[in-house]
Amino acid sequence: MTESQFDERYRLPPYRMDDPGTRKRSRFVADQQRELLANLKRRPATIAFFEGLMDAPLQDSSPAVGYFCNMIPTELVWALGARPVRLGCGNPALVQPGEEALTGDICPLAKSSFGMFMDPESRANKCAAVLMPASCDAKRKLGEILSDYKPTFVLNLPPEQDAHRYIKAATLEIERLAGFLCDVLGRRLSRSRLLDAIELSRRRTAIVRAIQELRARKPAALSIRDFHLMIQASFAGQDPEAWLREARRALEEAELFEAARKRLRPRLVLTGAPIIWPNFKPLNLIEECGADVVADTLCTGAQSCFDPVVYDEKSRGALMRALAQRYVFASACPCFISQGVRTSRVIDLVEEFKAQGVVNYALRLCQLFDLEAYRLSRILKSRKIPFANIRTDYSLEDTEQLRVRLEAFLETIMEEK
Amino acid sequence: MTFIFETLLRYLEPFSSGILCLAVLFLMPLLLDRSKPRILRILIIPAAAVAFWLLYRHVAASAPAARWLGRLNSPLFPAMMILVLPAVYLSRGRLYKLFLLLPAAFLVLAGLAVVHAYRGVPPGSGGFYWLLIRPSFLMAGAVSLAVLAQPLASLKNFRRVVRVLAFIVLMYGGFMFRQDYTDYKEMLGRRATPARDVMTISETTPVVREADKLLHLPGAPCRFSADGGYVQGCNMELWQRVMQASILKVRARDVGETNALACATGSVALLLVLSFAAARWWCGWICPLSSMGDALNGLRRLAGLPHLKPAEPVKLGMLLSGLSMGTLGMALAKCYPYLDGNGEFMGCKIPIYPFCKICPGQQICPVASRGPAGLQPLPGWDWLFGFFRVAVIAMVVLFLVSFLGARRLWCRFCPMGMISGFFNRGGMVRLRKIARKCNHCGVCAEVCPMDIDTVRSEMIDENVGSFHCVLCLKCVEKCPRDGCLVLELAGGKVTESRFDGKAK
Question: Would you kindly state where each structural domain of chain A is located, as residue ranges?
């Protein structure tokens, strides 16, 4: 048995809040977003499938393992016969209960995620374990709090993305995570099943890349909101083969789309903090203002599936290293001392997809993304790339304010063009 | 038929010149520069070729000049210019499909050449002589095969195709691809005479053998492959030849010695052209020793064992010992003119190709190409007081261990590769990294069989070639970001990293 990361002497009984009102409010928020999306002009016929995945109940056929962030090697979970469920929560209705229990001064993502754990009927509480990278202070401490609810593993990350210096440490951490999962699930990790799982996620990467490439050519073929919905549906812990099949169908359908004439909507690259279903507020705003997001670097968007796990040798150690390389060193998360991946990715996307501007979504109370926006804006401005920063949280209070700002930004872009 | 082939070969001879190949490579950036007028870009190479052809025919009218020009010819160059360069630069469209007719035609031509050579077999002595084929046709045929295979194969499999083709030609070419029937018979005759003592053997007879001329290749096409191998040997063999030349005899106008030195000089010039054109790419794609080593490496991978990651001092140690072994071999080769009838100099018995005697190629290549019958006797204890016996065993063990356990650690030792390594930066090939596309995942460093970290860590300088890089393109093959790593030849893109693993 791997040693627990948490102090066993101070275990607490989980604090629950069985409130039907909150549950109802959170369902209402999701339904509202669904209605907004239903008004989209073009949607793939299979989109109902993806929408259905977002709140489909977890089947009991195999255990579910909850995880946060884009730095948990979900391949390990698949390889052990369990299903990874991404728990990072975007539901504004759950912010308040989380805030009441914890504090107001942490980011809404952490608060609403904890709010989800407090509800005994939520999918978070159906998971056999929770995995969480120590990617920010909120996550680090939330891990300890959640360890009262579920067997929890907090994945330590190196402070720098220097593979030469930290690859050994990062690989050891991944090994430790694998050990934890094996213990919790009572299974042994087999190399061939890990290879199958890697292959599975590579297939998802291929489809996501194909859709992104298609959207670069004709963004009107598929709304960015539907694209993100599809991607996030693949984190919902449902049958991956079904997801792949439906995503391929959606891609084929979008491929057939031909715009009547060239649309001259501004093309934007979206970067910044995660945008999680059902809080698609920034995406709604951008599309409603008449711009297209042609590419993004969000860890809940295309970036989450963009980089595949690459292996050459098939020994266990080499596979673990390959996981560390993909999930730690190729990560675009601002939690590292220096984050060149995201900056160069944004610059590259602007060039490759001929975008006219960059929008940064800074989630209020996330210091990491907020601070990075300062340098990012100066770097982009020095390269003559228009940049706008949207700082907001899950609430809808500032929607109109943001809309005015965005419209002004889009106007300046179109003038420059 | 004979007439057609002879005429073809005679008129195409200028196109097999290394000088023309070099000129074409130098003109290539001009052709690829889209800012230049289109007509200039299209005409520049044909104009240069025609001009060179006329000049060549004119100069070759004088016999000594023709001899020197002939030394700079190689059957590789026509194949390289007519097949490889277009295959590298043409974009993959309809035009390319049209172009593929050319290699197909060359294959047919090579087939016809074989049929033609079999017609030359005197009646009544019918039998199987493998493929009797002239070197230029064989090279064109082999290159055509590779060009035709490329669109079908991923980068990984394409490399395999090239390596297998090169391996067959260089290891088994000695008996498989003899020039014609008489050449084949002569080869059989040499085979019948019992092998001379391994320490005094002076000449092997490769297939590519013309009067006044030698052909060496970078990488390790060993002359000790079965029946003399296909070409004269590797560049270390050539440097030994240069060292062996006695300056005193040349000064005394000894005809034989001068001629030998001239042949070697011509081959050096050729070798420099080849190294300049492709640097250590020869190590990564052609070298038969490393192909065998990779097979050993494959055994380890099959067993699922991890490879050793040698520490920096080990890598440096390999480099230094390779350098010192090479230097020692060269220094001992210098003794050749002073050897007495007993093979001794100052009371020390020294073989005439001292470096070959410690190179594992001499032990491994004969066995690989002829089976157990090719096993070479070990040097006796009297050869330079046992040094050669100990060194050769140590080298073979080092070769096997480093390829079995540490991927291509051996190639950090290899002095042959070091010489091409000087051309890795500043030569015609360039490994380029578009750093803004890099996601820092470090896969390039992880898969690099030479254990080079430059490709991963370099973020400022676009040129990420380094001395030890063998251009195996494993990093390009595995890089998950499309277009992040690019291989360039003469300023034009050859291939780039792609998620789907395709070569082009």
Answer: 59-416
